[in-house]
Amino acid sequence: MEAATPTETTLHSEVRYLKGVGPRSSDLFAKAGVETMEDLLYYVPRTYTDWSDVSTVESLKRGDRATVVVRVVSCDILRHWRKQIFVAAIEDDTGAVFARWFGQPYLKTVLTAGVKVVLSGEVRFDRFAKRIEFINPAFEVMGEGEAAELVHAGRIVPEYSQIGTLSGRRIRGLVKTALDRFLDQLVDPLPENVLRARDLPGLVESVAEVHFPPSLERAARARSRLAYEEFFLFQVLIALKKRQLAGSADAVRIAWRDDEHVRFMDSLSFKLTGAQKRVISEIAGDLGRDEPMNRLLQGDVGSGKTAVAAAAMHQAVSAGHQAAIMAPTEILAEQHFENLTELLAPLGDRVVLLRGGMRVGERDEALGLIESGEAQVVVGTHALIQEGTNFSDLALAVVDEQHRFGVVQRAALRDKGNAPHVLVMTATPIPRTLALTVYGDLDVAVLDEMPPGREKVVTAVRDEAARRKVYDFLKSEVASARQVFIVYPLVEESEKMELAAATKMYERLKERTFSDATVGLVHGRMKPEEKDAVMEGFKAGNTDILVSTTVVEVGVDVPNATVMVIEHAERFGLAQLHQLRGRVGRGDHQSYCILMVGRGASDEARERIQVLADTNDGFVIAEKDLEMRGPGEFLGVRQHGLPKFSVADLRSDSRLLVQARDDAFAYVAGDPDMSTPEGRLVLDATKRRFKGRGAFMDVG
Ligand code: ADP
Ligand code: MG
User: Fold this and answer.
1) Cβ 653 vs Cβ 460: under 8 Å
2) Which of 230, 572, 654, 666 is the most exposed place for a label (fewest CB within 10 A)?
3) Helix/strand/coil for 3
4) At a CB cut-off of 8 Å and minimum separation 6, what does 691 contact?
5) Does ligand 1 lie within 6 Å of residue 304's CB atom?
């Protein structure tokens, strides 16, 4: 039976119905996210080459980048070693010149004698032939007599990213075909008033001009309009998701009690920083509403997030409810348990720990306390969200070190209560554009001030030549009873080999270099209990030097550790290095971070790492990281379903993103059901655009 073809090909038909696209090309297109004609129209050029100035042959000089309108006089295929070279003699009314193409013998059927052609390319001097020639120019054959519409040469030419074996030139031709057929079917999804307020060009004009612009300015204008549109539609999705969450059920209002907060502050051994106070009052506002709080608290390592969480949890308890905090590892859960017991038990709050490795008796007891409500503050790991853990009245859920948890765990914890308020804490500063995208459904608060008296961690970049000195320094620190981390990175592809290298290094350090010290090893292949045992030993001060793969990344608190050595620092992202550095500088002693660059590291990599030595500000570092490595590489972002934007760029379009977010949120507030004709249009476009991309797609 023959495959059914739609009777009518439209903008929303699959791209394989486009003239010139076969099954193989359509498979390739699909890989690049181009499935329909519309997708192809949104496949914007990577850049442009301006070949719009036409020269005469007579005026050509070596080194020119020129366009000429010529006729082919004769042509020939030369063989040079194994390569075929296609050479054409061409002329206009002012003179003749040669052009050569390497390895494109098919041209002999295209550029035959007498054909009129537009050539755009570089003019070089050929030393052997002693003449100037075009080398591999772009070309366009012009039909005789018809009004010439240039696509590939002689204009501002769009350059597309190649997709597998689909060349940029092929794609350009196909885009042109699609534009000719479907451009007028495009319907602008942006609301009238947004277009007007932002002074944006219409969709049809923008799509036409982003591909074949009359000027580079117009190309830029068209591209930004399309980027804006992409952000707008995505932010509509986020706004809807946020409303859905807020409207799903009423949270309990927790009226903030100043008397209890004063008791809390009085029991602290320190004064809250200005930033902590500000964030606490933002949270106080959230807790007082019957819409569940859904807030992200960002703060560098050591900025004092725990105290903020504790203040909020104490309020939940004072109002007669339960609060819980979930940590990604047992050791962190235990650390929180100790800290929170110290902070909150004196106030009369009952703090209970629930973790994986408990004995059955202990565990049952903890579960019982949680279920009866006697446990007022519950600290735990994933165990908190498992079946069988039942709260009596969970009103506030805190999730620590967010990047270890996905959206799913966040939701699971939320489900343990009846629309509890949720506070998510992360020590990974996230650039604003990413925060608005990946955590767009959360309100963001930032602890941008460190508690006073913190010494800056002295940071230096060193290479192999300095290894001796570095080791001598470590010895002197160990001799002063300080502790040292040495981190050895594992790259996923060669994890086994590198684990072997890390282990070997550990053995050498233990046997030889630091034979007088106690050296420990911890890595990702160990069982969780083994890992915890090693970490506990280090925390207790039984180990002087801890060699590890990146498992120390998450916030283990060892105030006596003063040196963080990172091997092959060039392999890490800046944000990750910054996080690792945060493991030291937690006590009263001056701390150091030594970034060892490997022999093969490029100058560029060194320069990148140098940023760490220059600043301690996590947000500055995060922005640099985003700039240099792009959003996909950003720590912890991938598992949250970062959408793949086809036009917009999170690095350079942050201003557009902020505008689009404001507009989208305002739009959704005005038409929450998206039920007006305009609203339906927006919603349909959103669904088409973000189908299957990102975790936000569960919105009606
Ligand atoms: P993080 O934000 O990395 O989770 P913590 O909450 O663990 O940071 O705080 C780090 C350390 O700083 C803890 O020992 C905590 O007691 C201390 N701390 C928190 N807030 C202050 C403050 N305002 N002044 C002094 N020390 C503080
Ligand atoms: Mg912490």
Assistant:
1) no
2) 666
3) coil
4) 697
5) yes
Residues 507 and 607 in one domain: yes
Which of 591, 615, 639 corresponds to the end of one domain? 615
Interval between CA 427 and ligand 1 midpoint (Å): 12
**Which segments of 352-492 does DSSP mark as H helices, in order?**
360-372, 407-414, 432-438, 467-479
Q: Taking the chain, what is the end-to-end CA distance rounded to the nearest angstrom?
A: 37
Could you tell me if 170 and 274 lie in one domain?
Answer: no
Output the pLDDT for position 467.
94
Q: 420 and 251 in contact (C-beta within 8 Å)? A: yes
Does residue 149 form part of some domain? yes
Residues near 667 by beta carbon (within 8 Å), at least 6 away in sequence: 191, 194, 236, 239, 682
Q: What is the pTM of this model?
A: 0.75
Question: How many domains does the chain contain in total?
Answer: 4
Residue 559 CA: which ligand 1 atom is closest?
Answer: 14
Say whether both 58 and 181 belong to one domain.
Answer: no
Residue 47's contacts (CB-CB under 8 Å, 6 or more residues apart) are: 159
Q: Determine how many CB atoms are found less than 10 A away from the CB of residue 614.
A: 11
Cβ–ligand 1 distance for 307 under 6 Å, the answer yes
Per-residue pLDDT tens digits for 554-568: 557 788 999 999 999
Question: pLDDT higher for 161 or 491?
Answer: 161
Q: How confident is the model at residue 65 (pLDDT cuts 50, 70, 90)?
A: very high
DSSP class of residue 160 equals P
* Mean pLDDT of the region 221-229: 97
Alpha-carbon distances, residue 129 vs 92, 124, 546 (angstroms): 21, 11, 67
The torsion angle over the Cα atoms of residues 211, 215, 219 and 221, rounded to 10 degrees, is: -150
Q: φ and ψ at 352, to 5 degrees?
A: -130, 140
Between 629 and 332, residue with greater pLDDT: 332
Confidence band for 700, pLDDT divided at 50, 70 and 90: very low
pLDDT tens-digit series, residues 16-26: 999 999 999 99
Ligand 1 binding pocket includes 301 (Cβ within 6 Å): yes
- 335 CB under 6 A from ligand 1? no
Tell which one of 268, 277, 303, 553 to mutate to probe ligand 1, the residue whose CB is within 8 A of the most ligand atoms.
303
Host domain of residue 210:
15-45+162-215
* Separation of CA 7 and ligand 2 centre (Å): 61
